[in-house]
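Box 3.1 A note on notation
Throughout this textbook, protein chains are presented in two layers. The first layer is the amino acid sequence; the second is a token string describing backbone geometry. Keep the layers aligned when reading.
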Amino acid sequence: MKRFHVHLHVDDLAKNIGFYSQLFAQGPTRVELDYAKWMLDDPRVNFAISTRGAGRGVDHFGIQADCPEELEALKSSAEAASLTIEDQGETSCCYARSEKYWITDPQGLAWEHFHTLGAIPVYGESHGAPAGQAATPACCAQPMKALAPTSCCTPNANTSTRCC
């Protein structure tokens, strides 16, 4: 079963953790110095906030697949609809390793479709980086095909690359 994903940029992480913990009647499942995430079951939402990126508000939406087959079905549907896909394959970003691709809507809002493969301890840690050292995440090095708001893993209109 898939899960809806929302990522917001906030200016005060602690204040927003307090607010959303009250709103959702539960604390986050992951908290870092610049990031928090709730994995809600009713409704099924992966709700994340971070202090990274420019401005406040919605950064991107997404669909989190529970298995590779669901991700492939989402991708097949997007391809059948002739949507432009930016496929990142396996990448590290936002404290997780994921298989993912992006679609940008007509307003420029990024939609991430992904399957989480595992957690990583450092924001955007890449494979092969020395233990405990943050590397330039794989998502940062990829050229983008469409412009969208800046975030941990969405296109950066200022640099024409993904920026974590």
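The beta strands are 3-9, 30-32, 35-41, 44-50, 57-65, 86-93, 96-104, 110-119, 155-156, 161-162. The longest strand covers residues 110-119.
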